[in-house]
Amino acid sequence: MAFLGYLSVNGNNYRLTRRKMVQALAGIAACPIAAATADKHPFRAAIFFESYATVAFQRALRYAGDDGFVASMPQLLHARCNAEYDNIIWNTWFTANSEENIVTTPAGNTVVLTVHGGGVFADPGRFERSLRADLRRDNREGLTAQYAARLTEKESQDLLRGRLPGGDEIPVYTFHDIKQGIKGLPMQYGVSLDFKTAKSGARNYVSFDILRGDPNMIIRAGGAEYLHAYLDKAQQRHDTESMGNWHSHQWIDSTDPQARILNIGGNRGGIDSEGKDTQLGWGYDADDGIGASWPAGLARYVAVAPRDDSISLGTLDFVL
């Protein structure tokens, strides 16, 4: 079997086969990008880790190019489900190309609109404007007191209609749709959930049994089926009774349109998975599950793109 190449982090190389990487990171359903390019070049994945989030995201997007993608939360979870526990995908934390937006409909109903694959903040420039904006309350591109990125009224209303700032349109499904399961999900889509339902969802370190039915977790995973598959494998790895599920819905001002970026915890060897104290570092910390925050500092993205191994140094044999 031909080798795809390596994931490299902190000097450690993880050799992956083409089949494993396509299964792991091509998405939760049949990936149109993979189908269109697999016959030309194999896919290669790379990790982009920086102390400044915008730089990490810019580098990931540049690597992905027009024919690749930066992995969303469902894709990261799917990758873990298709990887061995010693793979780097399990052994550190990642930033997802997924965002949770709190917006209000024209009828006055507040919803959490989660966009996987890139929404308002698919543009690093928009990302940067939020990070560098002043903190005046009337600045619609600044940050809230809870460090979420504010959305303009136009961005909010366009999102509800599936319209992105760059002019692209995406499908927006209901929570009921995604819970029942949608075959052939696109790479980029949104899911709308009533804010009161999202607010009542479990938070903190929660038992796996409760997480299997949690609406926020179902949406973050791209559907109940995919969530259950991930939780089964995560629980087996950690051998624990609970996992972290984090959101800020209980104390934010929901009338203030805002966005957070999804992230997923990870640690070397599967230890400290129930909130135990551990020495903080640059990557291998306590596995605190899945959450949403605004990454003003560290970020770690995975980008996937077709690469021609025949012109790459990555697969050459340098051993005499």
Please outline what is shown here:
This protein is an alpha+beta fold. It has helices at residues 18-25, 32-37, 53-64, 73-81, 124-132, 153-160, 175-180, 195-199, 208-211, 215-221, 224-238, and strands at residues 3-9, 12-17, 43-50, 69-70, 94-104, 110-116, 149-150, 172-174, 189-194, 204-207, 242-245, 258-264, 290-293, 299-306.
Characterize the structure shown.
The chain has 320 residues and is an alpha+beta fold. The protein is built from eleven helices and 14 strands. Strands 5, 6, 7, 8, 9, 12 and 13 form a seven-stranded mixed β-sheet that branches. Helix 1 packs across helix 4. The two termini are 23 Å apart. The N terminus is likely disordered.
Characteristic key phrases:
seven-stranded mixed sheet, 320 residues, single chain, 14 strands, alpha+beta
End-to-end distance: 23 Å
**How much of the sequence is in beta strands?**
15-25%
Indicate the radius of gyration in whole angstroms: 19 Å
- Please identify the structural class as seen in this structure: alpha+beta
Average pLDDT taken over every residue: 83
How many E strands?
Answer: 14
Query: Number of helix segments?
Result: 11
Helical content (DSSP H or I, runs of 4+): 25-40%
* Domains, number: 1
Helix and strand string, N-terminal first? EEHHEHEHEEHEHEHEHEHHHEEEE
- Largest sheet features: 7 strands, mixed
Uncertain runs: 1-39, 280-284
Overall geometry: globular
